[in-house]
Amino acid sequence: MDFNIAVIKGDGIGPEIVNEAVKVLDKVAAKYNHRFNYTEVLMGGCSIDATGVPLTDEAIEVCKSSDAVLMGSIGGDTTTSSWYKLPPELRPEAGLLKLRKSLGLFANIRPAYLYKELKAACPLKDEIIGDGFDLVIMRELTGGLYFGDRKTVEENGVMKAYDSLTYDENEIRRITVKGFETAMKRRKNLISVDKANVLDSSRLWRKVVEEVAKDYPEVTYSHMLVDNCAMQLVKNPRQFDVVLTENMFGDILSDEASEITGSIGMLSSASLSETKLGLYEPSHGSAPDIAGQNKANPIATILSAAMMLRYSFDLDKEADAIETAVKKALADGYRTVDIMSEGNRQMTCSEMGDVIAAAI
Ligand code: IPM
Ligand code: MG
């Protein structure tokens, strides 16, 4: 089959890791007789440098008319890069937020799975890890604090900044439905994470979760406060199956979840809309400190490409092939530097891509 993929390489390590994902996709296309047509789209700092804005309307149109968007990472060093001297709406991250909103990508799925081969890279003790954990963070992606009104003003000679956190019940309901649907396909357990002891938005969140839960009697669910969840993730990650949460909590908790899988370089993500069009990107950032050095771990991006095949193209067999190839590369002892441990073979970013592509 033929598929059109908009490719956003972005900034920092973005181009390196996306090249490896494309290498693996090309291998899948050759083996399973598909055609992937790639159109490069600028977003983030590279778009600012080329066009003056982090995401142009033309770029959004290319993404909208594609079957899926594959992305690397955007942004630079927030303390040194000149991009962060621009007004907030012209900075790299504003491009990504605009793209998520324009494509209606309200559901962000971030699976955190501990490969048994990476136990040595996991910072948790053996007795906590047991035989591993396998959880999914279902993060609301187009509402809450990252999209609320914000301003910085001076009042009576004092600078004051405002950010607002709003959710309406429909926004909560649609992500909650995704959370429960996902739980139904997994171990039928869902923990909804909020801060209902303080925030109104969380109290509404809880109420809607309670309502939606009635339609999924097979799913066991409970509520957890976000501060407790941050602790439970390192204390007992095995208790989690689907973690449902709002935008900012999901942003923070998914970084934490990725670290306990051994490295933030392992965590893929899919951002889904009401249609088949999705955006697939690693959960990590652009790591400007190692950009251009061929050291980055491309696995999160390669696994994101697998999610693209599964969710946007319905190519389950091909997605399985990528995931199996990643497992094989790890089982054969190939490691990028972030997950390196004694007795294994250290690879560059492109060598890791080669090994995984060869295993398809
Ligand atoms: C992520 C990133 C983004 C986010 C940034 C780059 C805007 O941290 O995808 O987790 O906060 O959503
Ligand atoms: Mg983040």
End-to-end Cα distance, whole Å, is 18 Å
Oligomeric state of shown chains: single chain
Secondary-structure-based class equals alpha/beta
Question: What's the gyration radius in Å?
Answer: 20 Å
Helix content: 25-40%
Order of helices and strands: EHEHHEHEHEEEHEHEHEHEEHHEEH
Instruction: Indicate the proportion of strand residues.
Output: 15-25%
Count of helices? 12
Low-confidence stretches are none
Total number of beta strands: 14
Mean pLDDT: 97
List bound small molecules: 3-isopropylmalic acid, magnesium ion
Largest sheet properties: 10 strands, mixed
The dominant shape is globular
Strand order of the largest sheet: 2-1-3-12-11-4-5-10-8-9
Describe this structure in words.
- The chain is α/β, with parallel strands linked by helices and 360 residues long.
- It is 39% helix and 20% strand.
- Strand 6 (150-155) and strand 7 form a beta hairpin.
- The mean pLDDT is 97.
- It binds 3-isopropylmalic acid and magnesium ion.
